[in-house]
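tool_log.txt
---
The assistant was asked to compare two proteins side by side. It first ran the structure predictor on the initial sequence, then on the second. Raw inputs and outputs are pasted verbatim so the downstream comparison step can read them without reformatting.
(1)
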Amino acid sequence: GQEKFAQACGEAGVAGAIVPDLPLDEAAPLRKALKAAKTHWIPLAAPTTTKERLARLGKATSAFLYCVSVAGTTGSKLPDDLEAFMARTREATAKPRLVGFGISDAETAARAARAGDGVIVGSALLEAISSAADPAEAAKRFLSPLRAVLG
């Protein structure tokens, strides 16, 4: 159940939980349980999210809004209208807005960071380490250029 999940997150030291298939309108019990466990609930917003819903998501998160850059799958490239989407999120909430999906190199990380307040890298990092003999070294090699442009 949700309380057991939240408790396990708290005990493990999880800072934030992303539950992609949990609609905002049904998230209140989990948000409450996570808050009690000192774990943030991280909602996702897509380019198709309305202004009103963006505002509600911004109010609901205690940490940041995960802005999914594309209405597609992870690993996609950054869309041409990223800046317009992120401008809409800026109007809707004062909470930090991090861009995820499509961050695959230093160039895309820099563009996403200019549009939002930070970046989230997932698939590209996993791909970089998946077949590496030394995953830690592969992660360092992949992340170093991103860190350089992000400061």
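(2)
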Amino acid sequence: MRFVLLLLLGIIGFCGPTNNESNIKILCLGDSLTEGYGILKEYSYPSRLEEALKIKGFSVKVINSGQSGSTSKNGLKRIKWLSRMKPDYVILALGANDGLRGLSLVELEQNLSDVIEYAEGLKIKVVLAGMKIPPNYGPSYTLEFEKIFKRLAKTYELPLIDFLLDGVAGKPDLNLPDGIHPTAEGYEIVTQNVLNILLPIITGVSIDE
């Protein structure tokens, strides 16, 4: 009887998932850009990301924790609550609202650092999404804002999405009338921006190979 049980367990194990990773859980922590403001949620980048990874054979759950109007200030509180879901990865995409409101860059950097350190303390792998703001905030503030994400990526040795909205920002046909939030078509590009950085981390293989 014991032999039969061991044999069955062996068969079950043999027939299990064969992809590189199974049951991956990815938390997308951000603001309205993550939420998918103004469009159907299935067109947001977290939803598209889950679909793209499943097509590639991954058993994955992508959690959309985008919250309109959110700044980096409540990032730590949010990650503490959301960590109960036990994500393997977090895509940290906060800071855009800090910049658009002209908030303290020192506080922005500290707030993001707090989120990163908390996540890493729980062995959650962090992918940082870089942000940019319009030049009308002044060259000094605009430049220093962008530097924060690169500096954090270097300090904590994080994979960095140089600019979450690369290829989308400033293009009217890819943004809603507010000129800030992507359309469904725009989010196709945003999803690819994220996938280009995330996929090699999950597979250990460069996306160009």
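---
observation on (2): Residues 184-203 form the longest helix (20 residues). The CA atoms of residues 49 and 191 lie 6 Å apart.
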